[in-house]
Structures are given as C-alpha cells and as structure tokens.
Design brief:
This protein is mainly alpha-helical. Helix content is about 95%, strand content about 0%. Helix 1 packs antiparallel against helix 2.
C-alpha cells in the first residue's frame, strides 16, 4: 500500500511542478502582453506629440495669413476714406493689429507646445509602465521556478517519509 502512496506523491509532485510552470508562463505572458500594449501606446502618444506641434504650426501660419489679409483690408479702408496709412491713428491701428496677431500666434505656439509636452509625458509614463510589466514578467518566471523547486522539495520530503514508513512496515 505504501508503494501506491509513493507513486501518488511522485505524481502529485510532478503535477504541482507542471502547474507552477504553467502559471508562471501565463503570468509572464500577461505582463509581456501588457508591456507591448504600453509600448504601442507610447508610440501613439509620441505621434500625437508631433501632430500637436504640426497642427500648432499650421494654425499659427493660418493666423498670420489671416492677420496679413486683415491688415491689408484695414489699409484699403483707410486709403478709401482718404486717410494716410503711414501715420497717426491709422498706423496705430495697423500696428496694434500686427501686435495682437503676433500675440495670438504666440499663444497658439505655446498651447501646441503644452499639448505636445503632455503627450510626451504620457509616452514616458507608458514606457515606465512597460518596463515595470517586463520586470514583473521576469519576476513571475523566477517565482514560478522557485515554486517548482519548493514543490519538488515538498514532494521529495513526502516521498522520503513514505519510503521510511515502508521500511518500518517491512
């Protein structure tokens, strides 16, 4: 009867080790999968950062073009009314238009820069998460090996006890 006990201990140990190995591999695979997702999200965030700058430059250029057209219409309106556009309040209005449009352009550039910075920070956060998940995957594999070894030790101890029982019974 003790031979059956030893055989069951061997089978139990083998199954326990296999289960620990499968669990470690599955956990590591889940962490690695999440790390890949994090890295993909980081790439997207970096692309969004570049896009924010590009859109900001386009908006800034469009704003300046619009301001140039508006100044030209101001000059035309002053000239049509017989006002000299090179002096007095006409030049003050045109100068103010230039100043305010440049302020608007600077605000557009600043906002695009801030949005880009946010996306770059998000990309960095994703990369830190990916590194953490890669480390967790490595730790899961190590823990699985330790659990397998622990299961082997426990199984060997049980088998030794059974063997000692068999010797004592015989």
């Amino acid at each position: 009867m003790c031979v059956v006990g030893v055989a069951l201990s061997v089978a139990s140990t083998a199954l326990g080790m296999a289960a620990a190995n499968r669990e470690a591999k599955a956990t590591a695979a889940a962490y690695n999968s999440q790390a890949q997702t994090d890295e993909a999200n980081a790439r997207i965030a970096r692309q969004q950062a570049e896009d924010a700058i590009s859109r900001g430059q386009t908006e800034e250029d469009q704003l300046r073009q619009k301001a140039t057209r508006f100044k030209a219409s101001q000059k035309a309106a002053f000239a049509a009314s017989g006002t000299d556009t090179t002096m007095g309040s006409a030049i003050d209005v045109i100068t103010d238009t230039s100043f305010l449009s440049e302020q608007d352009a600077a605000n557009v550039r600043y906002n695009a820069s801030q949005q880009s910075l946010g996306f770059r920070q998000q990309a960095n956060n994703y990369m830190f998460q990916a590194r953490g998940n890669r480390a967790a995957a490595k730790n899961a594999r190590t823990a699985g090996k330790m659990k397998m070894f622990s299961t082997l030790i426990g199984g060997a101890t049980t088998m030794a006890d059974r063997m000692n029982q068999m010797r004592g019974d015989g």
